[in-house]
Amino acid sequence: MPSKKALVRRPSPRLAEGLVTHIARERVDHGLAVEQWEAYVEALDAHGWETLEVDPADDCPDSVFVEDTVVMYRNVALITRPGAESRRAETPGVEEAVARLGCSVNWIWEPGTLDGGDVLKIGDTIYVGRGGRTNAAGVQQLRAAFEPLGARVVAVPVSKVLHLKSAVTALPDGTVIGHIPMTDVPSLFPRFLPVPEESGAHVVHLGGAKLLMAASAPKTADLLADLGHEPVVVDIGEFEKLEGCVTCLSVRLRELYV
Ligand SMILES: NC(=O)NCCC[C@H](N)C(=O)O
């Protein structure tokens, strides 16, 4: 059943201590980050998404990146076991939120690790990045959770960026977009469109032709507009300093059974 709800989570007061793995640490302006987060939430609201705030996890610096804590397929919520130990305390609040929404709940268990940012769904194909945060046991558990429901799980290597979706996301027609220098094996995707900027690889389909994108990728926004898409641009610069992107600041719930 189609639904248009999105989980978001207010930035922790400790946001500036968030993990940084592939880039140099830069000072995060907390006040500006909160303003950017509010504008991001407003952009979802303005395009018909009912945003639901998961209870804040103030002791968890990276908790705003809520996408990493749960993977949705149909109305099943797979609670992850984040690859970074400092992020594991983020999951109980998310579990409670999805259970309240009537989702069936499943879990990634030790020794599995999996971050939601490593999971890209295109129809019933679920690409999963095996990289710094998601291990082989996590991939197997993802398969076991969703293949019996009709999904096909395709594992792809990720070595150049934090998560699979730091490298690639998909347009509404299923074309995968990515910045070639950050993508391990572009040929694994049946239709691949290279984009000129690293952050241009990140889009959230808001509905219709609208694509939520970061302000840091103006050339890619022009490219996508020229192909008939309608970029909706938000500045998420403070989150990009922590390797965040537009995809990881929300979890879209499109198939709740209500
Ligand atoms: N899915 C995502 O792209 N998540 C971004 C997580 C950034 C956070 N600083 C982390 O390293 O876990």
TrEMBL record:
InterPro entries registered for this protein in UniProt: DDAH-like
Broad enzyme group: hydrolase
EC number: 3.5.3.18
Gene3D superfamilies: L-arginine/glycine Amidinotransferase, Chain A
Entry keywords, A to Z: Hydrolase
GO molecular function, one term: dimethylargininase activity
Chain ranges passing through the membrane: none
Record family assignment: Belongs to the DDAH family.
PANTHER family in the cross-refs: DIMETHYLARGININASE (PTHR12737:SF9), DIMETHYLARGININE DIMETHYLAMINOHYDROLASE (PTHR12737)
Protein name: N(G),N(G)-dimethylarginine dimethylaminohydrolase
Gene name in the database record: ddaH
